[in-house]
Specification:
The protein is of the alpha/beta class and about 120 residues long. It has four helices and five strands. The protein has a single domain, classed as SpoIIaa-like domains (Rossmann fold, 3-Layer(aba) Sandwich), CATH 3.40.50.
Length: about 120
């Protein structure tokens, strides 16, 4: 499941990934991003991976499609997580999903929101 975070405001959008992410989860996530981009020229995105398990293989295509569609409209992407793998994956997201991506440990969630807004 991918759920929108309450802290989302204006062009700053946050989502939390919970459990195993499916292709269907990407549909609602993509619709939320698209709806905001109809109002804003570009957005900043926070992804909270604290409760993320993995992406099902069936979701990989939707993941890459998301990057192709929105890569140039996401100016900053903050990834909040807890594993070295998540930190490493953030480095891959930088050129594929956003103009700039940065990893933040769980205890720096607020710093992640602040970074998006600078």
């Amino acid at each position: 499941m991918i759920e929108k975070l309450e802290q989302s405001s204006g062009r700053f959008l946050g989502y939390k990934a919970v459990g195993k992410i499916t292709r269907e989860d990407y549909t609602s996530f993509t619709e939320g991003v698209q709806a905001l981009l109809e109002q804003e020229e570009s957005i900043c995105l926070l992804l909270d991976l604290e409760e993320f398990d993995r992406e099902k293989v069936s979701a990989w295509g939707a993941d890459f499609k998301f990057g192709r569609e929105f890569r140039h409209k996401i100016t900053k992407m903050a990834v909040v997580g807890q594993t070295k793998r998540q930190e490493w994956m953030t480095g891959l997201m930088d050129p594929l999903f956003a103009d700039e991506a940065k990893f933040f440990p769980l205890d720096e969630r607020e710093a992640a929101w602040e970074w998006l807004q600078t």
